Amino acid sequence: MRKPVIAGNWKMFKTVGDSVATAVALKPLVANANHCEIVITPVFTALKSVADRLEGSNIKVAAQNCAAEQREGAFTGEVAAFMIRDAGCSHVIVGHSERRQYYSDSDEVVSRKTHAGLAAGLTVIVCVGETLEQRDQGSAERVVREQLVWGLTGLTASDLDRIIVAYEPVWAIGTGRTATPEQAQEMHAFIRRVFAEGHSEAAANALRILYGGSVKPDNIAGLMRKADIDGALVGGASLNAESFAQIVNYK
Ligand code: PEP
Q1: Which helix (H) or strand (E) holds 132?
Q2: Distance, CA 18 to ligand 1 centroid (Å)?
Q3: Per-block average pLDDT, block size 10, for the chain (251 residues)?
Q4: Distance between Cα 156 and ligand 1 center (Å)
Q5: Which ligand 1 atom minimizes the distance to the CA of 11?
Q6: Which of 226, 140, 212, 129 is nearest to 181 (CA)?
Q7: 62 has which bridge partners?
Q8: Element (H, E) at 233
Q9: Cβ 129 under 6 angstroms from ligand 1
């Protein structure tokens, strides 16, 4: 039985004060949500304050990115995964399409970041997804397979329970255009098959695969009814405590 994960990606929004206020507002709204794991992802500067305020609650804190380098050193502007752990986080997102698109995070870099996150003891949410052009050209599965094979390369069996995959079709992120539950299910089932080929049937069955792309309170339930959709990575609708709580409490 896979426990669903509902994760909010706050992107580059909110000051420290706003982040803490949203986290504090969210806490009572999701206090009874035992059916899923809840993760929120503030900006780096707010991680420690938010994690401190949420200690002992059922809300976990993630970073949106981490350095590919595992040890501290002369890497100006980077934050190592172990520093993210030290700030009170349990998760990190790697390979988000905005990182791939605007900051040139290649499949190789995503793979190094995945390893860095795991080495620091974090659970890593690895994002994959095709662009509209790639989908229209019929290459969505090829693109996602490549991202998966790279992103998950060199992982041992014991790493796998700290890996979560987020399927985020780029054309659905921040556009208001959600993949239909059927489109998402089809790709999630494909991802599970690719994972089984690379690892094992048992590992593939245990893998949580989140859908991301314009998830809202009114479309989450339909997505969650699909067999291979194990949760959501939510951008815009996670910025507001009430709307994110409605998504978490989709049942
Ligand atoms: C995201 O940022 O991961 C995302 C899915 O954004 P949105 O929900 O706004 O499409």
Answers
A1: helix 132-136
A2: 19
A3: 96 98 98 97 98 98 98 97 98 97 95 97 98 93 94 88 96 86 97 94 96 96 97 98 98 81
A4: 29
A5: 2
A6: 226
A7: 91
A8: strand 231-234
A9: no
